[in-house]
Design goal:
The complex is a heterodimer of chains A (114) and B (113). In chain A, 0% of the residues lie in helices and 50% in strands. Classes of the chains: A mainly beta (114), B mainly beta (113).
């Protein structure tokens, strides 16, 4: 079965650079979520989109932005990267905003800022 | 608002022993509850979920959990631990009208030979 695809799997950037993370949800899923997981931490909710509109917002820095496109894939754009942005970034998708169902997670993008 | 509390950041059990990982939740709407497992450098894999209906839910790999509304709990159990169960386990909550899953801080399960 198709799963959530994230690219790239690994990314190394220097401080103050920008990064773009991509997420391709499971076909027919209309809701996408972004999470940030620091070393030894639980996943922290960043932002979600339902039917291409922002549906909820968590602890996402102003330096980050995201959107969901017409084909339902999503991109997380990160600017002015800081060392503290080094983390595993997960994308998840679900149907109808998680009503009565679970979120399926991708394998994550490991971002290292040096 | 919703939140999840997982008691015990580290749990060690002997192989073959009972596994009990605790999760308590807080939710202003009827909760949907989940347990996910994460292996090192991997994504989150769903073990089981409670949305509506039967309060005792069975998941993959012999795990099960019981939703107890009166105790606001959703503890994860497995009768007999296997070495392959060693991983990080996260309890999560969402609910109708919300568009995010809130995770607990995780419990790292260690299985001793």
């Amino acid at each position: 079965a198709a799963g959530v695809i994230q690219s790239p799997r690994h990314l190394i950037k220097e401080k103050r650079e920008t990064a773009t993370l991509k997420c391709y949800p499971i076909p027919r899923h209309d809701t996408v979520y972004w999470y940030q997981q620091g070393p030894g931490q639980d996943p922290q909710f960043l932002i979600s989109f339902y039917e291409k509109m922002q549906s909820d917002k968590g602890s996402i820095p102003d330096r980050f932005s995201a959107q969901q496109f017409s084909d339902y894939h999503s991109e997380l754009n990160m600017s002015s990267l800081e060392l503290g942005d080094s983390a595993l970034y997960f994308c998840a998708s679900s149907l109808e905003g998680g009503m009565n169902t679970e979120a399926f997670f991708g394998q994550g993008t490991r971002l290292t800022v040096v | 608002a919703q939140s999840v509390t997982q008691l015990g950041s580290h749990v060690s059990v002997s192989e073959g022993a009972l596994v009990l990982l605790r999760c308590n939740y807080s939710s202003s709407v009827p909760p949907y509850l989940f347990w996910y497992v994460q292996y090192p450098n991997q994504g989150l894999q769903l073990l089981l979920k409670y949305t509506t209906g039967a309060t005792l839910v069975k998941g993959i790999n012999g795990f099960e959990a019981e939703f107890k509304k009166s105790e606001t709990s959703f503890h994860l159990t497995k009768p007999s631990a296997h070495m392959s169960d060693a991983a990080e386990y996260f309890c999560a909550v969402t609910g109708s009208g919300t568009y995010k899953y809130i995770f607990g801080t995780g419990t790292r399960l260690k299985v001793l030979a």
